[in-house]
Amino acid sequence: MTPDELTHSQFDTVYNLLSFSIAAQLFTAIFLLAAQGRVLARYRQAVLMSAIVCGIAAYHYFRIFDSFKQAFVTTAVGGRGTYVQAAGQSFNEAYRYVDWVLTVPLLLTELVVVLALARKLQNSLLYRLIPASALMIGLGYPGEISGDNAVRNVFGLLSTIPFLYILYVLFVELTRSLDRQPAAVRSTVSGIRYLLLATWGVYPIAYIIPLYAPHAGAAAWVVKQGGYSVADILAKCLYGLLIYKIARVKSTADEPDFAVREGVHTDQRVRVAA
Amino acid sequence: MTPDELTHSQFDTVYNLLSFSIAAQLFTAIFLLAAQGRVLARYRQAVLMSAIVCGIAAYHYFRIFDSFKQAFVTTAVGGRGTYVQAAGQSFNEAYRYVDWVLTVPLLLTELVVVLALARKLQNSLLYRLIPASALMIGLGYPGEISGDNAVRNVFGLLSTIPFLYILYVLFVELTRSLDRQPAAVRSTVSGIRYLLLATWGVYPIAYIIPLYAPHAGAAAWVVKQGGYSVADILAKCLYGLLIYKIARVKSTADEPDFAVREGVHTDQRVRVAA
C-alpha cells in the first residue's frame, strides 16, 4: 500500500531511484543496440532481445516515474513541507506487472537463444519456460491488486508453482545441455541463473511485506521501491550484459578470425578453449 | 543550499548553462555512436562506452534542468520581477550524484579498455578503480544532502581517501603499463589524466563552498552551477573525444591499411610510429 505521507527526503529518494532505473535501463538498451555488430551474426538475436527488454523496462519506468510524481503533492506553503497523496491519484504499483509480463518471457528466451542449442531442444525449453513465466506473473497480479490478505496469500502461493517449475527447468534440464558449451559459457550461464534466483527472490519478498508488516510505514515502503528498482536493474541490465558476454565468448570460440579482428587477448582465447 | 531568490539574469544564466550542457553531452553521445565504425573493432568498446557516458549525462541534465525550472517561480505581476523558490519544490542538487555513480566508474573503465592491455593487468586495474570510484561518490552523498557542516566535513574527508587512491592508480600504476603504447597514445593518456585531475578538482571546491562561504549568496551559487556544468562537459565530452582520439591513433598504429583507408596523413603516421 502506498503510504499517505512521505517526508521530503523520502520523496527525493524514491524520485532518484526511479530515475536511476530509467537511466540504467535506457542506456543499457542503447549500448546493446549499438554493440550488436560486435558478436557473430548467429548470436545477434539474443543481443537484440536483451536490448529490447531493457528498452521496454525503461519505457515502463518512465510511466512509473510519472505516476509517482502525480500521486503526491506537497503540503508546503513556505519551506519544504512533506508530500501527501493527491486526491484521486494513486501510485500505480501494479503497473510493474505490465512490464514483467512482456519482459520476463523475453529474458528467458534470450538465455536459451544465446546458447544456440539444437532447434528441437531449444523449442522444448521455450515451450515450457514461456508459458510458465506468463502464468507466474498472471497469477501474482490478482493478489497484488487485492486489498484482502487471504486473496494475496492464495495467489502468491499459486504463482510460486510456475516459479519453482522455471527453476527446475533452468537448473536441472538446462544443465544437461551445457556439456558442449565452452568453459567460460558454462560458468557465465551458471552465474546468470544465480542472478535470476537472487533478483527474482526480491519480488516475492516485496509481495509479502503488506501481509506480514501491514503497518510498516513509509520508510519500509521506500525500501521496497529501492528493492524493486535494484532488482529490475540487475535482472534486466546486468542480465542483458551477461547475455552479451556469452555471445562474445561464443563468437570468439566459434571463429578464430573473430578473436583476432576484435583483439581478444591470447590469454582469454586460451581460457575460452579450455 | 539553493538561494531563496535569483534575479532574472541569474535565472537565465543557470537556465542557459544547463541547456548548454544538455546540447554538448547529447550531441557528443550521438557523434561517438555514429563514429564507432571509424576505429578498429578492438577499440569500439571504449568508444561505445564514451558515447553511453555522454548519453547518461545528457539524460540527467534534462532532469536537472526540469528540477531547476520547477524550483523557481517568478514574482513578476508586470515587468520582469525576480525568481523565488516555489513552495515545496527544491532544486534537487543531490541528483548529480545519481549521474556520477553511473558515469564515473564507466569513465575510468573507458580509459583502461581503450589501451587494450593484457587481460590480467586490465582486470587488476578495473577491480581497484571501479570500487574506489563508487566509494568516492557514495561517501560524498550523505555530506551533500546534510545541512550539518560537521557531517559535510567528515564525509568530504572520507570521500577524499578513495579519490587519492584513484589518482595513485592512474598516475603511478597505470604509467608502468604505458611503455608498449605508441608515443601519441602515451601523451594523450597523460593529457587525459590531467584533464581528470583538473575537472574532478572542481567538484570538491563546489562541495566545500557551503562550508566556508555559507552566506555567499545567489551570485556564488550561480558560479557553482557554472563550475559543475563546465566540469561535467570537460570530464565527459572532451574526455570521450580524447578516448576516441586514442582509439584512432591506436587503429592507425596497429594496421597500416587502416591509415590508408581512413586517409590519415603521412606526417601523422610518422608521428604515431615514433
From TrEMBL, chains A, B:
It is found in: Membrane. The keyword Cytoplasm does not apply. InterPro entries: Arc/bac/fun_rhodopsins, Rhodopsin_retinal_BS. CDD domains: 7tm_Proteorhodopsin. Coiled coil: none annotated. Belongs to the archaeal/bacterial/fungal opsin family. It is a multi-pass membrane protein. The keyword Transmembrane applies. GO terms for cellular component: membrane. This is Xanthorhodopsin. One of its GO terms (biological process) is phototransduction. It holds the Pfam family Bac_rhodopsin. It comes from Mycobacterium helveticum. The chain crosses the membrane at residues 14-34, 46-62, 100-118, 125-142, 154-174, 194-213, 225-244. It comes from the Bacteria. GO terms for molecular function: monoatomic ion channel activity; photoreceptor activity. Keywords: Chromophore, Membrane, Photoreceptor protein, Receptor, Retinal protein, Sensory transduction, Transmembrane, Transmembrane helix.
